[in-house]
Design a protein that fits this description.
The chain is mainly α. It has one domain: YkyA-like (Four Helix Bundle (Hemerythrin (Met), subunit A)). Helices cover 85% and strands 0% of the residues. The longest helix has 42 residues.
Length: 224
């Protein structure tokens, strides 16, 4: 006689198998997984966005102090020293914020790397092409940012050196001009690289929305 207990075990096994198959058939598609990853990337870059306005404000204040120092000249050395020390504090604040910004971008980069496996699962040829292009653009964006970060850190080092020099009463005009020239050259490179980074960011955002639309994910552009 067929054992009822064994029959029950077989039914349970078949039920579990059926549920597993359903999960495989109706689970998130590769496109949906990519969407989840890309939106997580947006969240991880939140701290990056928060640093932008404070950084600009610090740069503005520092520029104002520098102009005050130049207007004073070395005839009012004590005031120059006071302002130079204040400027160093602002530079250090900028450095702290740019480091926080960097950590935010690197966290998003780590998360973004997980889409490699998800892209490999895309079967539609056109979607696969869009996903690969999107990844290429984002990789270029991260590379541009890392170069931008290095240049910005170099400019911070040069700024600190400048304000330290300004606290020396025997500072020569030649040394001051040479340091200023190095700073200007570095900041020119910073602006150029920042422009490149912004270009890749804009391109990536457009390609991301194009991918969402092609995958019929019904995502509004305001969700970026």
């Amino acid at each position: 006689m067929f054992n009822y207990k064994h029959k029950r075990i077989i039914i349970l096994f078949i039920s579990c198998l059926f549920v597993t198959l359903l999960a495989g058939c109706f689970g998130p598609s590769p496109e949906e997984k990519i969407y989840t990853t890309l939106e997580e990337v947006v969240k991880l870059e939140g701290d990056f966005e928060k640093q932008q306005a404070p950084l600009l404000e610090l740069e503005k204040k520092e520029s104002e102090i520098y102009n005050q120092i130049i207007d004073l000249g070395m005839d009012e050395f004590n005031k120059v020293v006071e302002l130079s020390k204040e400027a160093v504090t602002l530079v250090e604040d900028r450095e702290s914020k740019i480091d926080s910004e960097y950590e935010s971008i690197m966290a998003s980069k780590k998360e973004f790397e997980s889409i490699d496996e998800q892209i490999e699962q895309i079967e539609d040829k056109d979607l696969l092409e869009k996903a690969n292009q999107l990844k290429k653009t984002m990789d270029e964006r991260y590379s541009a940012y890392e170069e931008l970060y290095k240049l910005y850190k170099s400019s911070i080092t040069l700024d600190k050196e400048l304000y330290t020099m300004l606290q020396k009463e025997d500072l020569s005009i030649e040394d001051l001009e040479a340091q200023t020239a190095k700073i200007n050259e570095t900041y020119q490179k910073v602006m150029e690289k920042n422009e490149s980074f912004n270009k890749f960011t804009e391109q990536y955002n457009q390609e991301k929305m194009d991918f969402y639309k092609a995958a019929e994910l019904n995502v509004k552009e305001t969700d970026e």
